[in-house]
Design goal:
The complex is a heterodimer of chains A (399) and B (68). Chain A has 399 residues and is α+β, with helices and mostly antiparallel strands. Chain A has a single domain, classed as Cytochrome P450 (Cytochrome p450, Orthogonal Bundle). In chain A, helix 7 packs antiparallel against helix 11, helix 8 packs across helix 11 and helix 9 crosses helix 11. The model of chain A has no long low-confidence stretch (mean pLDDT 95). The termini of chain B are close together. A two-stranded antiparallel sheet of chain B has the order 1-4. Classes of the chains: A alpha+beta (399), B alpha+beta (68). The interface between A and B is medium-sized, with 24 and 21 residues.
Chain lengths: 399, 68
């Protein structure tokens, strides 16, 4: 006998605690390997909340990441019904995706990104100097966590510091789910307006950075270089920024874990992995669409239907992790999906790891008595953004 | 026990070089896997299983080594 199918539900997005995934995922994960959900506008789609099915879906050749077929699982005006711009490889499939990606992967290896530690340390300490001057009492997001990853990427591709804040605003706008079409168009034209000035200038005068290397490689035209630069900027800014901020907020609210980390700096590598798993700031997870009718997890996914992989829920799957809802920076099991899985797994993941390690260590080293300046439940959250994190993190310290 | 690494399948995510830097490196050119030791000692089996499971494209495989 087959159980009567459950009626489709909407994607859970409400969180009762900022450190945990939306509460509604848990019963869905307990119930099914894959769940029918209703997408805005009523189109049928699917949700994955289990680890094993997430890995299988994200490596399945019958599912596409191409932008034109992706439908957001929550209501938003940010919908793209045309293919990604040339060079913007994140929302494409192989072989187009790997053609572009492999031109930059050499810059983001474990070794190359660790070699960037001195540059990252300089930027981190400059921002901490600004924090010190602004307080005691300041917004850590504005001065530190949003600024550091943006400055690092700007330096890696040679974007002048004077352009950084406006680029940060455009990236923030395009990650806000409540963004309207006119707001999105303004942000896109602000970003592409900058790139339309910047890229030709650098093509005439290539520098010693990632962009200069791509230009000298001679394989990309102006449009492709613009798409590549936009991908690097949007991939680097608010992702690591939110993770940096969420990590600080989480450690401040888990003082036993913070004390352990401050006592033993050797724990930092594992702490970063555990924070990535525990927090998984990809608020809506990863989406793919079926290129053909396909049998998956015991169901038939129809051609064109979209599957959302709820990465925050997947990383709390009790089938995969012992005591998944406990933050344990000494945990040895680091096989999380916070950075995705399959060919699209985060290009800048080792850069992010270096920024997070250097950032957490320097912050708690220079401000050992750092604490929230507001009650923990009054920290305003980016709960209507593609990436989750605090909108502001008011902190203070002893002078 | 023998490791094989498929550079065509590799997407240069660098999980292997992160987990076991004495066994795996990444090419400077495109970040794809470089195998440093194809026949590690059996004591590394758990680490290698972790590498295989976390490789995002299944580019790294572990095989029985009949010659060993």
């Amino acid at each position: 006998m087959v159980d009567a199918p459950h009626p489709p539900v909407a994607l859970p997005t409400e969180r009762s605690c900022p450190f945990n995934p939306p509460d509604g995922y848990t019963p869905l994960r307990e119930r099914d390997r894959i769940t029918r959900i209703s997408y805005p506008g009523g189109s049928p789609g699917w949700l994955i909340t289990r680890h094993a099915e997430a890995k299988a879906l994200l490596t399945h050749k019958s599912f596409s990441a191409r932008q034109e077929g992706i439908v957001s699982p929550v209501a938003t005006e940010l919908q793209y019904d045309r293919p990604a711009d040339p060079g913007a490889f994140a929302k494409t499939d192989d072989p187009v995706h790997s053609h572009y990606r492999k031109m930059v992967t050499g810059f983001f290896t474990v070794r190359r990104t660790r070699d960037l530690a001195p540059m990252i340390e300089r930027i981190v300490h400059e921002q901490l100097d600004d924090l010190e001057k602004a307080g005691p009492g300041a917004d850590l997001v504005e001065i530190f966590t949003d600024s550091v990853p943006a400055r690092v990427m700007c330096e890696m591709i040679g974007v002048p510091e004077a352009e950084r804040k406006s680029l940060q605003r455009h990236v923030e706008t395009l990650g806000r789910l409540s963004c309207t079409v006119p707001e999105a168009l303004a942000a896109v034209s602000g970003m592409s307006g900058f790139l339309a000035r910047f890229i030709p200038a650098r093509m005439d005068d290539p520098r010693d950075d990632i962009l200069g290397d791509l230009i000298r490689g001679g394989q990309l035209d102006e449009q492709e270089l613009m798409g590549m630069a936009a991908t690097l900027i949007t991939g680097a800014f608010d992702t690591t920024g939110n993770m940096l901020a969420m990590g600080v907020y989480t450690l401040l609210e888990h003082p036993d874990q913070l004390a352990k980390l401050q006592e033993d700096p050797e724990l930092m590598g594992g702490a970063v992995e555990e924070l990535l798993r525990f927090l998984t700031i990809s608020h809506l997870g990863a989406s793919r669409w079926a290129l053909e009718d396909v049998e998956f997890a015991g169901r038939t996914i129809k051609k064109g239907e979209v599957v959302t992989v709820a990465l925050p829920a997947v990383n709390r799957d009790p089938e995969r992790y012992a005591d998944p809802d406990r933050l344990d920076i000494a945990r040895k099991d680091h096989g999380h999906l916070a950075l995705g899985h399959g060919v699209h797994q985060c290009l800048g993941q080792h850069l992010a790891r270096t920024i997070l390690s250097v950032g957490y260590e320097a912050l708690f080293d220079r401000f050992p008595g750092l604490r929230l300046a507001v009650p923990a439940d009054e920290v305003p959250m980016r709960d209507d953004f593609v990436h989750y994190g605090p909108r502001a993190l008011p902190v203070t310290w002893d002078d | 026990m023998r490791i094989t690494a498929d550079r065509e399948a590799c997407c240069a995510a660098g999980q292997c070089a992160l987990i076991a830097p004495d066994l795996f490196d990444q090419s400077d050119e495109d970040g794809t896997v470089v195998l440093l030791d194809a026949r590690p000692e059996a004591v590394r089996l758990d680490t290698l299983r972790d590498v295989v499971s976390r490789c995002p494209t299944g580019a790294i495989r572990l095989e029985d080594d009949p010659g060993a």
